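DM from R.C. (forwarded with permission)

"hey, sorry to bug you on a friday — could you get me a structure for this? deadline for the figure draft is monday and I only need the backbone to look sensible"
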Amino acid sequence: MASGGHSKACCTLPPAEANYTPIGEYIEVSGFKTYDDPITPFTADKTGPAKAKTAIVLIYDVFGFAPQTIQGADLLSHVKDGSAVYVPDFLRGSYVDPSWLPPDTEEKQKAFGAFFSGPANPGAAIEAIHGLVEAIRADNGPQTKLAALGLCWGAKVVAATSGSGTPWSVGAAAHPSLIDAKDAAAISIPYAVLASGDEDTGEVESFVKALQGPKLTQTYDSMPHGWMGARGDVSDPKAKADYEKGYTTVADFL
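My reply, with the result:
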């Protein structure tokens, strides 16, 4: 294990280079810069603008608005008709610097420690969920179904907000970090877990076993931790296929 309960892969693998032109735009939602994917076309109320049937909150990994994450948001919206996807900047522009990887010096280790105890402390994002959800509902209507997908660090935020009183109708995690079976035992909604070959198998199995409701679990053994986020090598045909399969699987589940 590495810093603060994160897997070794989480704190050693650098992001993959990628280029992508987003379909959506950056807006402000509840005080956070947020990537907002346009709603996939569907029949809307003729008297007003289209409203999303499902609003999906995608909580990114420690690299923030990586091209692969934004592409994943667009893919979710494309696959799931009538959905809008929101990617809030919970880290407020403070992301892991690739130069810290691997954390093989005291200076790099201190940088990681400050990051995870500061901007990447999940508690701040967990506390911000309520306001974000209220803003999304105000934009789309109170009947909008809310779903969440967390990548790596973001999976901890989704898991921690999926218990009693959760705003989500369904949740999902891809290559999760900070895995805790106690979080799973409290989850009260259908939940999906897509693991890579780098997570601790015992931790993932314990988490999935503790889930009480409907669940889906898949393991992509040949994929690295982060393959649906900043570490996804979408230039590689096999990696791209599993990347697209992951997002399609999540869209079908949410």
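R.C.: lifesaver. The first strand starts at residue 25 and ends at 29.
me: no worries. Residues 40-49 have pLDDT under 50 and may be disordered.
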